[in-house]
Amino acid sequence: MGQVILITGPARSGKSEWAETWARESGKTVIYVATATRNPDDAEWQERIQQHQNRRPQDWVTLEVPTTLSATLANTKANSCVLVDSLGTWVANLLEQDEVSWASTVAEFLVTVQLVAADMVFVAEETGWGIVPAYPLGRKFRDRLGALVRQLGGMCDSVYLVTGGYALNLTALGTRLPDSIDDE
C-alpha cells in the first residue's frame, strides 16, 4: 500500500489546493481523478471546473470518474500519485444506490485503497457541522459521506483538516476514535 492522505474541510477552504500541493511534491506521475460530471447548462459549475483545471500542471493526467472510483484506483501504477477530488461528489453521484448496494460499494472502495501501491490523496467535504438537513436525501448524503470519511480516515497515514486558511494535521494533533460507526 502506498501513502494514503485524506484532506477534509468546508467549502472554499483550500482543501483541493492543499491536495494538489501534496501530489505535486510527491515527485511521482500525478493522476487527477475528477468525480464531478460536466453540465454545459450550468455556467457557474463549468467555471469552477475550469478554475481547478487552470491550477493543475499540464503534465498531470486527468480522469473523469463520476462513479467507478474503485476500478480506477485498482488500475493505477505504483510509481504514481492519485489525487481524488472529491469524495463528496462521488457519494452524491451514487445517492440512488440502496443501502445494500452502497455498503458493497464502500466495502469495495476501502479494500481497494488497502491494495493499491500508488500514493493516494483524497479530498472530502465536511458536512454536518450545522443543522440536520430538512430533507431525507440531504440526511442520506451527510450520513454516507460522514461515515465514509471516518472509515477512510482510520486507514490513512495522515488526515488534514483545512479551514480558515490553515491545514491542520489531525493525525499529529488528535486521538483516533474506535472503528465503530454509530448514528451520531
UniProtKB/TrEMBL annotation:
Read off the InterPro entries from this record.
CobU/CobP (IPR003203), P-loop_NTPase (IPR027417)
Stated EC number for the protein is 2.7.1.156, 2.7.7.62
- Mind telling me which Gene3D superfamilies this protein's record contains? P-loop containing nucleotide triphosphate hydrolases
Membrane-crossing ranges are none
Q: Under which pathway is this protein filed? A: Cofactor biosynthesis; adenosylcobalamin biosynthesis; adenosylcobalamin from cob(II)yrinate a,c-diamide: step 6/7; Cofactor biosynthesis; adenosylcobalamin biosynthesis; adenosylcobalamin from cob(II)yrinate a,c-diamide: step 5/7
Q: Which UniProt keywords apply?
A: ATP-binding, Cobalamin biosynthesis, GTP-binding, Kinase, Nucleotide-binding, Nucleotidyltransferase, Transferase
Molecular function in Gene Ontology: adenosylcobinamide kinase activity; cobinamide phosphate guanylyltransferase activity
| Superkingdom of source | Bacteria
Q: Does the keyword Zinc apply?
A: no
Catalytic activity as recorded in UniProt = adenosylcob(III)inamide + GTP = adenosylcob(III)inamide phosphate + GDP + H(+); adenosylcob(III)inamide phosphate + GTP + H(+) = adenosylcob(III)inamide-GDP + diphosphate; adenosylcob(III)inamide + ATP = adenosylcob(III)inamide phosphate + ADP + H(+)
Q: What does this protein do?
A: Catalyzes ATP-dependent phosphorylation of adenosylcobinamide and addition of GMP to adenosylcobinamide phosphate.
Q: Give the family per the record.
A: Belongs to the CobU/CobP family.
Question: Which NCBIfam families does the record associate with it?
Answer: PRK05800.1
**What is the protein's given name?**
Adenosylcobinamide kinase
The gene it comes from is cobU
